[in-house]
Every structure is written in C-alpha cells, then in structure tokens.
Amino acid sequence: MMRLLVRRPSPRLAEGELTHIGRVPVDPDLALEQWRGYVDVFRGRGWEVVEIPAADGHPDGVFVEDTVVVFGDLAVITRPGVDSRRGEIDTTREVVATTGLEVAAIEEPGTLDGGDVLKVGRTAYVGASSRTSAEGIAQLRALLEPRGWTVEAVPVTKVLHLKSGITALPDGTVVGYEPLVDDPAGFARFVGVPEEHGTAVVVLDDDTVLMSADAPETAALWRARGLEVVTVPITEFEKLEGCVTCLSVRLRDAAPA
Ligand code: CIR
User: Could you tell me how far CA 231 lies from the centroid of its own chain?
Assistant: First the structure.
C-alpha cells in the first residue's frame, strides 16, 4: 500500500519562514490550487491520501516532510529547528500513530528538520544545516544504526535544507544544482542539473519522478535517461523555499519511503 501524508496550506502561507531568499507576494488561493494538483498526481497513481489536520496557525505547516521521517517501519517525529514550526509536530504525531508504524522522536535539545534527510538505499544523508543540530543527528544515528542504517552527516550552508540542494533518482544517483551543494564530490554518484528548481525529484516508482514545472531542461535530462517525468506547478511554495519533496511524506510498504 502507498500512502501519502499531506496537510493543506494555511491561508497564512505568505508569513512562512524565509532564510535564503527575499519575501515576495504569495497567492493563497493559487497555493491551494497547486497543492490540490500535487496531491492529485499521487491519487491518480493509486496512492491513498491521508490528511494531517489543518494547522492554519502555522504558516509553514504544509511542508509536512519536515515533521516526520520514515525509515522502513520506523517513523521519527522531528523537532523542527525554528520555534514557529515546533507546534506542527503535535498533529503529525496523532496521524502517524494511526499508521501502524513504530514511532520515535528527536528530543530536546536536539533539532532536526525532515528536509535535511535524504535516503539512498539504507544510507541516510543528514544535512548539518541551520535547522538540524549535531545533537539531532546524533539522536537519529542512535535510532537508525541498530536497525542497519548508515547515517552520514553532510554540510549544508548554501540552502535551507539538504534536500533543497540535492535529491536522488530511482537508481540512487544523487542529483543537484551545484551552486547550491556544499560538497558534490562527497557523493559516489552525483549528476549536476542546469536549474535551481531541478534539484528536487520525488520518486513515484522505479521509472517515474515528480518535479517542479519550473525546471524544463532538467525534466528533459531525466526523460533522456528513460524516466517518465511528471511536472506540477508549485510556484507559491517555492516562494517560501519549499519544493516537491517537502509537501508530503510518502509511506510505502516493503521499501523505504
Ligand atoms: C521553512 O523555512 O521552514 C519553510 N518556509 C520551508 C520549508 C521547506 N521544507 C523542505 O524543503 N523540506
């Protein structure tokens, strides 16, 4: 079974946190329409959509990926690195408790944002970013290493989260926009992309990825590699430093999400 955890955008999305880019006007109605388009891609491919209750008092609540990370049958509730986002985890925890997954949590004083965790096979690359602390990474390592995962800390200084700069194709190739990646040489297989919004892919299945509509040259690259590429407009979320990965948490039975 494939399940997608999402949360509808707050009408206050425009007030979300910004770290590396300037504030520009955000259209909340367009954001809702784009969010629905994003969710529909998954629904149309057989995913069951599970909505985390709206948290309209949290402008960044739509970016649910930051609040929980799933490793096989273990869900790790995070402790977001900014105060304005900490309250988001309460509703995430309630929904995760209904999934049948084992649940653990990052505890104070550690901090960790899910956007800093990139899973490739049984390796979890974890961004040491302004949001994710060394203590948060140490806690995650203590949870995962006994379960057979390797945890590798990766420097992140040029973008908000590790996954704002890199993600991975279905075959495990790490892809990213080099000006935003601290250490491309740190990955065994790395392919640079020509566009900033081309860094993020969500793996839908072994042959298909989902991307922002704002990176047409990168989409053409992946099509030339034989992948099916589905694109969605997510401009209103990109204005808040969000991307296709952070709008959902994917639960897949049998394989790491
Ligand atoms: C934030 O600064 O927390 C939000 N405005 C954006 C979060 C994006 N999340 C992600 O890339 N995983």
Answer: 16
